[in-house]
Amino acid sequence: MVYGNSGVESFEYFNRSASVEYMGNLYSFDEDDFMEIISPSNYWHGRSDPSSWLCEAIVRLGKSKFHKVLPRNAVITLCADALNITHEKLESSLDWNAGYMAWHEGGSVEEFHVWMKS
Fold it and tell me: What pTM value is reported for the model?
């Protein structure tokens, strides 16, 4: 599978060894998780430059998988590490994506944000 503008298999760009420790337990994504979010819409511009759609998709997955055992900050940290970007860059991408969708579809940023900060 080849997606986006990178010309390489997007699966290879993930940091598949990303993990986060919380209350003495280690949490990570598995290979199937990464395969679940790979699609033509969720692509990479480069190794440490995921599209905002890919950022949104991995946070949606992380939230779904870990929200009962990890606080938001830990999930965001895990997702950022898996995407090879900083926590701040991921937060910025999520905000941008929600803002774009609110503008494009009409509505509020809160309606479109995958997981707003409290």
Answer: 0.90
Tokens describing residue 76: 């965001």
- Please state, as a whole number, how many other Cβ atoms lie within 10 Å of the Cβ of residue 92: 14
Interaxial angle between packed helices 52-66 and 87-105, expressed in degrees from 0 to 180 and rounded to the nearest 10: 110
Instruction: List, for residues 34-81, the tens digit of each pLDDT value.
Output: 988 988 889 888 888 999 999 999 999 999 999 999 999 999 999 999
Q: Residue 58 contacts by C-beta under 8 Å, 6 or more apart in sequence? A: 37, 50, 79, 82, 83
Whether pLDDT at 9 is above 60: no
Quickly state the pLDDT bin for 118 (edges 50, 70, 90): confident
Is-contact 75 118, C-beta < 8 A? no
Tell me the two tokens of residue 101: 């969708």
